[in-house]
Fold this sequence. Notes:
Blueprint: E1 37-38, E2 49-50, E3 68-77, E4 80-83, E5 86-89, E6 94-106, H1 109-112, H2 128-131, E7 146-150, E8 154-156
Antiparallel strand pairs: 1-2, 3-6, 4-5, 6-7, 6-8
Amino acid sequence: MSTTATNPPLPLVPEDTNTNFPSDPVIGNDDATPFDETNNPYANAGKLTSVDPPARTQRLLGGHIGDTYRSQLWFQEFARLEIEGVWHVISDPLLWRVDFRMIKRQVTEAMWNRDYNGDGDVNDNVTEALAGGDLNGDMDNNDLVGFWDDNGSVAANDNFGAL
């Protein structure tokens, strides 16, 4: 029997943090680093570019086979220009939403190309005991080993459903 959890207990600190959009929309708050974009149009034939799609990296830890995880993001992209020390928004906001939907699926010997139980094939499910430890972080080693897989994630150029 599988269980469903809105957010299964993940023993890891989340890799991102929620940041409120500043009251002054010209400030922006999208990046910790500018290395994925070209912010100087004079150095790039008049073009501003950015390649920083939202992403989620799921590890083996947390949840059980059949559990689901959902994370919804709403944000906007825009261009701004500094003129004599004052920032100005120079584009309409491009609204985005991303709805990450994940499900914990069973790991098989074939996926890892390893005969964990020594029966001469790679047709069996991998268990924590066979893999050698607690891979889901629940302090035992008697569970099936699973991985987080996409379960209908969507992205769109709108903020439908944003609070």
